[in-house]
Amino acid sequence: MLTLLSSGLLSVWLDMAGVRTPGLDAFSLVAGPGIPGFVIAGDPEPATDATLKQYLQSLVAKGMVKDTQGVWIQSASTLLANNQGTVPLPAASLTKIATSLAALEKWGHAHQFETFVNATGPVKDGVLQGDLVIAGNSDPFFVWEEAFAVGNALNKMGIKRVTGNLIITPNFSMNAEPDPTTSGEHFKQALDPSIWEEDAAFVFSSLPPGTPKPKVEIAGTVKIGTVGGTPLLRHRSLPLAEILRQMNVYSNNEMAQMLADGVGGANVVKERAAKAAGVPPEEIQLINGSGLGQENRVSPRAACAMFMAIQRYLQPSHLTIADLFPVSGQDGGTLDYRHIPPASVVKTGTLWDVSALAGVLPTRTHGILYFAIINRGADVDGFRTQQDKLLQRLQQQWGIPLTPIAAITPKHPIHPDFTSAGAANRNEVLLGG
Questions:
Q1: For 332-387, what is each residue's pLDDT tens digit?
Q2: Cβ atoms within 10 A of the Cβ of 221, count?
Q3: Which residues, 6 or more positions from 50, have their beta carbon under 8 angstroms from its beta carbon?
Q4: Which domains does the chain have, with CATH numbers?
Q5: Residue 41 · residue 85 · CB < 8 Å
Q6: Average of per-residue pLDDT across 72-100
Q7: Cβ contact 360:373 at 8 Å
Q8: Rounded CA gap, 245 and 15, in Å?
Q9: In 84-179, alpha helices (H)
Q10: Model-level pTM?
Q11: What count of other Cβ atoms lies within 10 Å of the Cβ of residue 109?
Q12: 180-190 vs 144-156: helix crossing angle, rounded to 10
């Protein structure tokens, strides 16, 4: 087995695994430059290595090539098993781990994107005599619920009709639509129940009983334009931590790309993620923020290191990676029909010939196991089954925790009234202010 060279970093990883290290500021120990955030590849732990060999042999027996299967498993500072773990491989949506880390580095977990609603004319007798302007700021999670809340806020201001057009700025997106015109059509529809289609009506039906239906009729059409007019409302998005959770639970590619673009593009995401995780830059190779494309490559070791970096970042805020990524047994989305041990926090990834899974596995004797599995081959469904079985064997080997491990227990929602989609208190009236 190989342990980290830094006793200070070792204490941090023990903290993250649920082992107390009194008198040490865990976050400050990992915040400085030059501190590694990964284990150097060395001799594996015999029992886990034997389990990995059995796993790989089962894949080879089905015609898969051993050297195209990347696996890295570690516990705190100790390497447990490794096969091609330092080789960057097509990682599919494991790329979103890097995007999540880079977004946290840039904005912070509590950041909220702002969208402004302006008017180009006066409001008289409930009628806005001019255009309604939506000045977006690249909010990646402006969805039906948010639009309903904006419509209700406009109604409370007395606005029920717009004589002009709906003007959308290019950086406004609704329902993760990359085309601003389509986003504008969705927004216009959301404000007027008489033109709701099935999606809008279905989402509204899921809102709390008593939620009013907005009623703002826009006479004109949707046009792409620039910011103008007098501000009426400031709409603040969900906090970034909740946006990242939504993105990762459903592995939404459009949301991931919007966040990556906001950070500065794939190269900036790669640089920020590698630096924060302390891994060699060549182990993270990206062309976008979503993972679409074989050119997005991440080593299994780097995937684990990025999870650790996110965990370290969240520690001072009393959040955990379970607040940003799906939890087995609690969340659906990409975990539907999976048999991953309960309370594991994971990120999935899939391309036509790639099946990837990374995250943390809770155990009784080793605390948190960080793992990443990247499989190459044509049997994606078979890979998923074998991945789940490998994690089940590892947990049987090291025991099921008797109590939840705090370091990977979700804390959300911290403020349900504020962090639920469509919360009215994230709209601020600006007219006259």
A1: 999 999 999 999 999 999 999 999 999 999 999 989 999 999 999 999 999 999 99
A2: 12
A3: none
A4: 7-109+242-402 (3.40.710.10), 114-237+417-429 (3.50.80.20)
A5: yes
A6: 95
A7: no
A8: 23
A9: 95-107, 144-156
A10: 0.89
A11: 20
A12: 50
